[in-house]
Each structure stands twice: as C-alpha cells, then as structure tokens.
Specification:
This protein has 248 residues and is an alpha/beta fold. Helices cover 27% and strands 27% of the residues. A 9-stranded mixed beta sheet has the order 9-8-7-10-6-1-4-5-11, sandwiched between helices.
Length: 248
C-alpha cells in the first residue's frame, strides 16, 4: 500500500507570536517552526499502517525551501520519501487541494492522510475540498483507523461522541488529537533521513489555479482583557452586574 501524508510547516505553538508592522501576517523571523502537530499524528499513523500492511509512506509539503526541514523530520520518523512543492506565496484551502490533487495524480496513493487542521490558520477545509476534487470517500477526525480487505473503517470523533464509518480505498483521512502519540526520531533515523530522496516540484508549473479565493486583508491582536474585580458580597456583585456590566 502507498500512503501519502501532508506535512505543513507552521509556527511553534509554544512560541510568542507577534504581528508584522503592517499587520499583513505573523512575524516569523527568529520564531521556531515545526511540523503541524496534526500532520505529525498523520505521519505516525501512516508508519503504523505500513508496519501492518507493508508498502511506502510519502510525505508532502507545500511551501518554500525551508519546508525541507519538516520533510526531513518526517523522514527521520521513518517515512520513505518526500515531495516538496515549491511555492512562496499564500495559498488558501482551495489552492492547497488543487496542488495536492496533482501530486496524488502522480503518486497514486491508496490512502491520503492529513491533519484535520493546521494550527496556524485552523481552516479545517483542505482535506474535504481535496476529497471532493478527487471523487474519493473521506473520513475526518479519525480516532482509530483499521484497514482490511480494500476498505478502511474509521472511528471518528463527533460532537455527540464517536461515529464509525467504512470507506472503500482510495480514501482521504484526517487525524484527530487522540489517534496516536507520534514517535520521536531516533539517531539512526535522523542519519538515514539525510539520504532519503525528496522530489521537488514547482506549483506554478502544475497548471492549476493558485490565486486564493479567500484573501486575508489584515490581522489584529485581540483586545486586552481588563483586570477582574473582587466584591465583598453577592449583593454588590448583583448590583455591579446590573449597573456596570448591564448583563442582568
């Protein structure tokens, strides 16, 4: 079986984020960049499924040459090959899906695994758009994944609990937080990753529409929260809620 897993480069969730002076985006100079945590879960799941079913794990990232760091991280975990689609401007979810569809057309995987969302934009859209473009079934927010007899059974996390869906291969799956615990790359794995092949492609040469339909005009920092107040008794609290906060 062949598994294709996305591997997006994002800012570290523990980093202190600042806006650029013109409020056009996040200042990334000097900020640690990591693999999107949900994509890392996807890489781990693909590796576990390969251990059961044999085959190949290919990781794909779209972005500048810097994204090679995240690809190498996935290769150090145990992935077999990498694909870097070079593109130096912003893509919306539709653009990401179009590019991935071209990669999938070339790679012909049985299973595409993506993080349910990227922690930088939190869109949670690219995988669903991709599945629609491909005409493939999809199973989102996966809690467990079982592949057997040309079909995949996914227990997915829903608002009311868990839902079980069964899809025929090929399929698009997105990972949820509780699917697994990603492994740490071993020293031998890190050394081997340096020699594993990474194919480079240019998004502009793929013949797909890259201009975003969704354009972010500017970013704003959240309003500063006011300090809370301590009150001596319930009567005073009720009075302040009525006269100052005007919520009752």
């Amino acid at each position: 079986m062949k598994f294709l897993v996305t591997c997006k480069r994002v800012t570290d969730f523990e980093a202190k984020i600042k806006l650029k002076a013109d409020k056009s985006g996040i200042e990334t100079n000097g900020v640690n960049m990591i693999m999107n945590p949900f994509d890392e879960i996807g890489v781990e799941e693909a590796l576990r499924q390969r251990e059961k079913h044999q085959g190949e794990v290919v990781v794909c990232s779209i972005g500048t040459a810097d994204a090679m760091t995240q690809i190498r991280s996935a290769l150090a975990m145990g992935a077999d090959r990498g694909v870097l689609v070079k593109h130096d401007t912003a893509l919306d979810s539709f653009g990401v899906a179009r590019v991935l569809a071209k990669v999938i057309e070339k790679e012909k995987p049985d299973v595409v695994i993506m993080g349910k969302q990227a922690i930088d934009d939190d869109s949670n859209q690219a995988s669903q758009i991709l599945a629609e473009m491909l005409g493939w079934p999809q199973a989102t927010f996966a809690n467990t994944v079982t592949i057997e007899g040309g079909a995949v059974t996914v227990v997915r996390e829903a608002d009311g609990g868990l839902e079980t869906v069964k899809c025929q291969l090929p399929v698009v799956i997105t990972t949820d937080l509780r699917l697994n615990e990603p492994r740490y790359a071993s020293l031998p794995g890190i050394m081997k990753a340096k020699k594993k092949p990474v194919d480079e492609m240019d998004a502009k040469s793929m013949g797909v529409e890259l201009a975003p339909r969704v354009v972010v005009k500017s970013y704003e920092e959240p309003a500063q929260k006011k300090a809370g107040q301590k009150v001596p008794d319930v009567a005073t609290l009720v009075e302040k809620l009525k006269s100052e906060a005007k919520v009752i």
